[in-house]
């Protein structure tokens, strides 16, 4: 019930291409869905987040698509750049005080120049 | 921009020894967390802390772990008797909101148990 499944495990994209990472969750009590970006040797950094009252959120080149009925959400990175090469984690939580963030397994994105 | 700071960046200890990992959360934040990441695996929740009490803990956070906020700025994770399988990156995080909201993570402490 607490799991968040993420795919693919790794992704290679050419510069300028679109990177798409998918996540699925089980717990219908989850109501906050962030994506984190992690560079080697650094902690996860919040990239973008969505709540289930909207189906899409866009910030610059990053878009989250959310499908509540399917319990799935995805991250789209438009015009992918070599600097986007990092590990991306989806996550989910119940947005109540102090509740845990449950992470997906991570996707290692490589953007080739 | 305010950030969560963690010390040390790397800690090497022998099996059975006690370690204390230290964190300074963002100053106006109210909720504090510890997560760990075994090499190549996902980030796993350990414990959340609010108002000098544990709010929630995972099944990983057994009796060998404890957390403390000894003063107004530091937040610590103590592992009483380290095991080889405790080797991981340990991340501290904090958040401002009473109703959840974004977590801000530190850069982690790499713990190596030999």
- The arrangement of helices and strands of chain B along the chain is EEEEEEEEEEE
What about the largest sheet of chain A?
6 strands, mixed
**End-to-end gap of chain B:** 36 Å
Q: Which oligomeric form is depicted?
A: heterodimer
What integer is the average pLDDT of chain B?
92
Q: Biggest sheet of chain B, in brief?
A: 7 strands, mixed
Total number of beta strands of chain A: 11
Question: What is the overall silhouette of chain B?
Answer: globular
What does this protein structure show overall?
- The complex is a heterodimer of chains A (113) and B (114).
- By secondary structure, chain A is mostly beta strands.
- Chain A is 0% helix and 52% strand.
- Chain A contains no helices and eleven strands.
- Chain A has strands at residues 4-7, 10-14, 19-25, 33-38, 45-50, 56-59, 62-67, 72-77, 86-92, 102-103, 107-112.
- The model of chain A has no long low-confidence stretch (mean pLDDT 93).
- Chain B is mostly beta strands.
- In chain B, 0% of the residues lie in helices and 50% in strands.
- Chain B has strands at residues 5-7, 10-13, 19-24, 31-37, 43-50, 53-57, 65-68, 75-79, 88-95, 104-105, 109-113.
- The N and C termini of chain B lie far apart (36 Å).
- The relative contact order of chain B is 0.34.
- The model of chain B has no long low-confidence stretch (mean pLDDT 92).
- At the A-B interface, strand 5 and strand 10 of A face strand 4, strand 5 and strand 10 of B.
């Amino acid at each position: 019930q607490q799991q968040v499944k993420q795919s693919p495990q790794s992704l290679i994209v050419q510069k300028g291409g679109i990177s798409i990472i998918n996540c699925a969750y089980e717990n219908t009590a989850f109501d906050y869905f962030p994506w984190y970006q992690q560079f080697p040797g650094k902690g996860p950094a919040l990239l973008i987040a969505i709540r289930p009252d909207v189906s899409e959120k866009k910030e610059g080149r990053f878009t989250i698509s959310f499908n509540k009925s399917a319990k799935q959400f995805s991250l789209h990175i438009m015009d992918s750049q070599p600097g986007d090469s990092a590990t991306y984690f989806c996550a989910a939580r119940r947005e109540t005080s102090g509740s845990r963030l449950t992470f997906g397994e991570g996707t290692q994105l490589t953007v080739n120049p | 921009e305010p950030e969560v700071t963690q010390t040390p960046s790397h800690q090497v200890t022998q099996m059975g020894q006690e370690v204390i990992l230290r964190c300074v959360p963002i100053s106006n934040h109210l909720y504090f967390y510890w997560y760990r990441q075994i090499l190549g695996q996902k980030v796993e929740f350990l414990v959340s802390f609010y108002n000098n009490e544990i709010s929630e803990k995972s099944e990983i956070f057994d009796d060998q772990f404890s957390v403390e906020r000894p003063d107004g700025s530091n937040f610590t994770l103590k592992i009483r008797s380290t095991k080889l399988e405790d080797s991981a990156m340990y991340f501290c995080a904090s958040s401002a909101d009473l109703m959840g909201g974004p977590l801000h993570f530190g850069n982690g402490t790499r713990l190596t148990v030999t």
